[in-house]
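Re: Re: token formats

Sure, here are both.
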Amino acid sequence: MADLAVLQEILGVSFKDPSRLEQALIHSSYINENPSFAPTSNERLEFLGDAVLDSVVAEKLYQDLPSFTEGEMTKLRAALVRRDTLAHIARAIRLGDYLYLGKGEEASGGRHKPVNLAGALEAVIAAIFLDQGAATAKNFILRLFNKELQKVVSQGAEANYKSQLQELVQAREQQTPVYYVIDTKGPDHDRRFTVEVRAGDAVLGKGSGKSKKEAETEAARSALESLSTNFTR
């Protein structure tokens, strides 16, 4: 049987009713072989957890990416809540070790299957939501998904600012913006880059960051602000 005390420590959540967490770990194959153990599998919790996760991620993207369109945010949310991402996060906390599986599912590698891991993670989110409330569930999701959120937001912002600038400059000037590294400071482990973005000889914006991509994103953002201000005067 799963050691729920250890799992709660890993999750950083102390359940008022640990049976909710246990319910989140029960695969349908286990119920088929042990019908008296529990009335149902974790599938209903999975349904609820999926909705809670969608809502939290949508709110986070809405707050962090004010310039993004509905379509752009929808794509980023899909990347964050897709099965492979959920399975990756579930593996990181070794959630598969705690699943209740039938013998056949166990023998076929069920503890490592993305569909089982993703479903169990969504079910755990629902269990936390029901046991601890919306605020705790939200904090759990943001903590667990922090790295993936930062990566997706960063990649999305980079693509968004640079693509917006390119469209604007091409429409106004019939030129393509070009990025130049104009300064590099600091040791290898703490390098900082400064980048200028230009259209022809004109400097449109400047930005700095810990990587060339981050500096380019900041330069594009700066250029968009400048061009927008100049255009409205």
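Second one below.
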Amino acid sequence: MYDGPVLDNHLHLDPVNGRGVEAAAAFADAGGTHLNVLNKPSWDLVGEVDGAEGFRETFDLTVDVAAAADDRLPGRAWPVLGVHPALISQLRDRGYEPNEAADLMRTGIDVASDYVADGPALAIKSGRPHYDVDDAVWAASNDVMRHAFRRAAEVGCAVQLHTEGGEDFTRVAEWAEDAGLPRERVVKHYADGRIDGPLPSVVCEKDELERACSGEWPFLLETDFLDDPDRPGAVFGPKTVPRRTAWLAESGYETALYRAHVETPSRVYGVDTEATLA
């Protein structure tokens, strides 16, 4: 049986509306050890954002709840901060032109990169809409994502991407490399078990997890737990990664699990999930 660290690579903790640190405690009770805690969209935490200060308020809430979660885990909880790509649609509804919305979102990425450079955050979050948008919004969103790659290269961190579905993101990985960020430091959140370009953070669908474990490529596991009181188990509950890890271990995938929970976090984020266990 696998008895090493267990990392959920993409989980939200909402200290304003949701369970917050208690969801992290449930994760630990189920056998989880480490969390990458993504800030929820700014509009869920602080409402409308019009400048750097609104992003700082959003990020501070996430840094604080991650620190509280850190005290409840046998390992560590790390904040991953950035701008949800759907913000561009929120801003368009408020009258922003696509380039104006992109400018504000780049400001948010800049603030997130400061949190990485100054220490509390592990990585940056960016991406592009996962739904249909017009050409101007799509181009502006890609510009924001490329800006995130540049800033990540400058501060030396990974980028988690929220994007549309699919398996071919080769061009996105090339944009990252053009910006000076190695493609192995670009993580596709909510990914299938195998993708081209970035590294997959595989959502806890059993078939996709088995697909990832059956190969030899690096991957991570995630729930994308939303911590939404109106949808308490969405997307997967906080206990799911530990439970899926136990299920995969019973199926003989111990080597793949070590790759997902130890080797890949070291490769992507520069963290040691074994050394950080209590």
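The chain has a mean pLDDT of 98. Residues 42 and 234 are 19 Å apart (CA to CA).
- S.
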